[in-house]
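re: ur question from earlier - yeah i can do the single chain one, its not a big deal. heres the input i used so u can compare w yours
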Amino acid sequence: MTKRQKEILDFVNVFMAKHGYAPSIGEIRGQFGISSPATVHQHLQNLQDKGLIRRSPNRHRSIEIIPSDGARLGGVPVSVLGVIAAGHPIESYAEAETMALPQELGADETCYLLRVRGESMIDDHILDGDLVLVRKAGIAKQGQTVVALIDGREATLKKYFSEGAKVRLEPSNPGMRPMYFEADRVSVQGIVVGVIRKFS
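and the output i got, formated as tokens:
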């Protein structure tokens, strides 16, 4: 892989992690000061030939990163552990997928990914089907979005507020009410540090 190909691959990886969709040819040209679209297409074709990306012909923003190990993509390998839906145990995947994520997204070796089911956090732009990047943690600050375990069984994704002997778990959806629990019933499993969205 040439230096420029590596730079383009890293840029695509970071762009997709931040925005949830691939950069356009024009955005890649602008990032690297490349005058000709054909040159960008050639770099992308070389990356595709190496098995690092895939593209759909005649589709805008069709670049997809092919999952690989962290070193190959210049990122941190993070496992997709399962699905989180309010009031249910986390549904673990039989075979965990691994994605290489850039450190710029906040990924490190303490992180994992969960797919969101439900609309309780839509005002925080966390939608049904999104992946949330979670950093393992046992405590949280006021207002942080957390993966919380209730009574050691039920997992939920909510904003965390400590209120004396109680904990308030607040949805980001005006149609849903906050939940209150005795503090000893709630344990923080991790803090959300990023969101990944794919557009079909």
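DSSP finds four helices and eleven strands in the chain. not sure if urs matches, ping me
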